[in-house]
Specification:
Elements lengths: L4 E6 L2 E6 L3 H17 L38 H5 L12 E7 L1 H6 L4 E8 L2 H11 L5 H5 L22 E5 L2 E5 L5 E8 L3
Antiparallel strand pairs: 1-2, 3-4, 4-7, 5-6, 6-7
């Protein structure tokens, strides 16, 4: 190259800067960056999202109830199901959500819990009830419709469920929609 010519290579792009023009271009670039950085808006603080459970990047964050062993999040599903005495879901169940049992915690001081919403096919649900509940799956068709807070189901919106059926076992309550297909497993605990 000739005298007074400097060659810079950056990411396969060749930039040729001639002699004294380097300083004004550099100053202009730095000034532009400073002006641009001043125009950047500050994101809202995380406390603005605390009530909604939304993090500052817009994604939903896991809710960790006081006293609960794990956050209420699908990521912790296996850990939540392993809480003694241990629980499972019907074979092939698809988990729709894992939410905190907020109303139970409000009702029972120190209480915590999880509401696991799932879908599964009818036979898998019947097999699950046969394996986990002493009354067997034939009771699903015989028992009356579960009703409001007296059934301890405040964290499940029963009015949005067709002919809800419920039964308790271990540390859990199971709510099923009839005809079978959707279900909710409520796992709850409290200090002793």
């Amino acid at each position: 190259m000739g005298a007074g010519v400097v060659s810079l290579v950056r990411k396969d792009t060749r930039v040729v800067i001639l002699g004294r023009r380097l300083v004004p271009v550099f100053v202009l670039a730095v000034a532009s960056l400073l002006v641009a950085s001043c125009a950047v808006t500050v994101p809202p603080s995380s406390s603005d999202h605390a009530e909604s459970g939304e993090s500052s990047d817009g994604a939903m964050s896991a809710v960790h109830q006081e006293g609960a062993p794990f956050p209420a999040d699908v990521e912790y599903l296996e850990d939540i199901l392993a809480i003694p005495p241990g629980n499972t879901l019907p074979a092939g169940a698809e988990v729709v959500s894992v939410e905190p049992a907020v109303k139970f915690a409000e009702y029972y001081e120190g209480g915590w819990g999880y509401v696991i919403a799932f879908t599964a096919d009818e036979q898998a649900i019947r097999d699950y009830v046969d394996e986990n509940v002493s009354v067997g799956s034939s009771a699903i068709d015989k028992y009356p419709v579960a009703s409001g807070p007296g059934d301890g189901l405040n964290d499940v919106e029963l009015e949005s469920i067709s002919r809800p059926w419920r039964i308790g076992f271990g540390n859990a309550k199971l709510v099923l929609e009839r005809p079978l297909g959707r279900g909710w497993l409520l796992i709850r605990g409290a200090p002793r």
